[in-house]
Automatic annotation (TrEMBL):
InterPro entries cross-referenced by the UniProt entry: Leu-rich_rpt_4, Leu-rich_rpt_typical-subtyp, LRR_dom_sf, LRR_R13L4/SHOC2-like, LRRC69/RLP
Protein name, as recorded: Disease resistance R13L4/SHOC-2-like LRR domain-containing protein
Residues of the signal peptide: 1-25
Gene Ontology CC annotation, any one: plasma membrane
Record localization: Cell membrane
Gene3D superfamilies: Ribonuclease Inhibitor
């Protein structure tokens, strides 16, 4: 085994390696053939976000092959070419692309004609000198492919939601959350008939909830418009969102009464309307929602009698928040039949009468608020001290707030 016998094979190997390297680097990579136009569009698009110092062709000569860019994915199409299908910008992984202070949307974005998913996370930071808006034009160029569009936590992203997003007819996810978007919600979003997930929470959106959303988005599963400045009454068309599982409109300025059609949302598991100015009859509007697990209506001016609810039909409730709703009447025994209930807030209403003894026997209840009413009863009527040695709360109840109850400690 001398050197002589090794050398020829080593030379061969080196030759082979060089050949491969040359093929890969010279012909745009035999493993990941790309149109030059596509590649340049990708580089320029990323430069828009991360800055011109970033030289894509130098750092990532084969972006769909052996030099992948973190956050960028490609797919092979029938013509034998690779195209960019997923772009995620922002500090998601340690080595993710980070945005520059003067980050902006490059028009080259719209040249990536096979893009399925675009997400921009924590990229545009809040600063007065570089307000960024969502491009108003050219979204139609992505309409045949784009399914997922997410802009999250970009406090420097202001201006309005462009009506042109309504042309993205294949969109399934539209998440524009915790940015600084303002103005109204464009009715054109009601054209996104395949949308499953619509989240516009945590912006400064104003105006009314457009009726078009309820009228057309029959596949919608999640709708979250919470923490904006939305006003006015809810459109009755919302009752058309028959697939809906979660509806969160909390922390807005919505007023008027709930449309009766809301009761058509039979698959709804979460309804959060907290912190609005809703009023009027609501029992009938919620009647059909037998799947509800979370019903949170607190801090509204609904009024009405708590007994009017057919609580027995809400057997899957785990979380019931009815505090500060101007409710009158007595706590009905039927509430104590809600076997899965873990959280119950009835505080700051005008409830009267006795606290039902069976509250203490609810198997899952761990949090109970009943203060701020005109209730009578005593903690021992809740059998609060009958179960444990020296415990003054029943098994499971970890928090009780009943300042105007007559407390009797045994
Ligand atoms: C990137 O680097 C190459 C040479 O390595 C140069 O030719 C090209 O102009 C650079 N591109 C940009 C956008 O700076
Ligand atoms: C839309 O695309 C055209 C070219 O196709 C370009 O001139 C224009 O600047 C683009 N507008 C925006 C807002 O990106
Ligand atoms: C409601 O849920 C049931 C069971 O998951 C499902 O079969 C039904 O299709 C859903 N209804 C709608 C309108 O999506
Ligand atoms: C709801 O608020 C608007 C102002 O934002 C007001 O004009 C309207 O009368 C209110 N409607 C109800 C039913 O309170
Ligand atoms: C309540 O939950 C159970 C178990 O998850 C489910 O089988 C049942 O369909 C639910 N009831 C309603 C009315 O949604
Ligand atoms: C009670 O709800 C009203 C809206 O109906 C709100 O203005 C008020 O701040 C709430 N009170 C508390 C203590 O949260
Ligand atoms: C509280 O209820 C009692 C009857 O249980 C009633 O006599 C009293 O007037 C009520 N107080 C208020 C402030 O409503």
């Amino acid at each position: 085994m001398s050197r002589r016998s090794i050398a020829p094979s080593a030379v061969l190997f080196l030759l082979f390696f060089l050949l491969c390297f040359q093929v890969l680097s010279q012909t745009d990579g035999s493993a990941a053939l790309m149109e030059e136009k596509e590649k340049q569009a990708l580089y320029s698009m990323i430069q828009g976000f991360v800055g011109t110092w970033w030289n894509g062709s130098q750092l990532y000569p084969d972006p769909c092959g052996w030099t992948p860019i973190q956050g960028v994915s490609c797919d092979l199409f029938a013509n034998g070419m690779w195209y960019v299908t997923v772009v995620s910008i922002g500090p998601i992984f340690d080595n993710s692309l980070e945005c520059a202070k003067d980050a902006e949307f490059s028009t080259h974005l719209f040249e990536l004609g096979h893009l399925r998913s675009l997400s921009i996370f924590n990229c545009f930071s809040a600063s007065d000198d570089n307000p960024v808006t969502i491009p108003a034009q050219n979204w139609s160029k992505l309409s045949s492919t784009l399914e997922n569009l997410e802009f999250r936590l970009n406090r420097g992203l202001s201006g309005e939601i462009p009506a042109g997003l309504g042309g993205l007819v294949n969109l399934q996810t539209l998440v524009l959350t915790d940015n600084s978007l303002g103005e109204g919600i464009p009715w054109e979003l009601g054209m996104l008939v395949h949308l499953k997930w619509l989240t516009l929470s945590g912006n400064q959106l104003s105006g009314q909830v457009p009726a078009s959303i309820g009228a057309n988005l029959a596949e919608l599963l999640i709708m979250d418009l919470s923490s904006n400045h939305l006003i006015g009454t809810l459109p009755s068309s919302l009752g058309g969102l028959s697939s809906l599982l979660k509806l969160d409109l909390s922390n807005n300025l919505l007023n008027g009464s709930l449309p009766r059609e809301l009761g058509n949302l039979k698959n709804l598991t979460l309804l959060d309307l907290r912190n609005n100015q809703l009023s009027g009859e609501f029992v009938r509007s919620l009647r059909g929602m037998a799947s509800l697990q979370v019903m949170a209506l607190s801090n509204n001016a609904f009024g009405g009698k708590i007994e009017d609810f057919d609580w027995k039909s809400f057997g899957n409730l785990t979380h019931l928040d009815l505090s500060n709703m101007s409710l009158v009447g007595e706590i009905p025994d039927s509430i104590t039949q809600l076997k899965n209930l873990r959280f119950l807030a009835l505080d700051n209403n005008q409830l009267s009468g006795f606290v039902p003894a069976r509250l203490a026997a609810m198997p899952c209840l761990s949090t109970l608020y009943i203060n701020g009413n005109n209730l009578s009863g005593s903690l021992d009527s809740l059998r609060l001290s009958t179960r444990g040695q020296g415990r003054d709360l029943p098994l499971g109840i970890t928090q009780i707030s009943a300042t105007n109850l007559v407390v009797k400690v045994q």
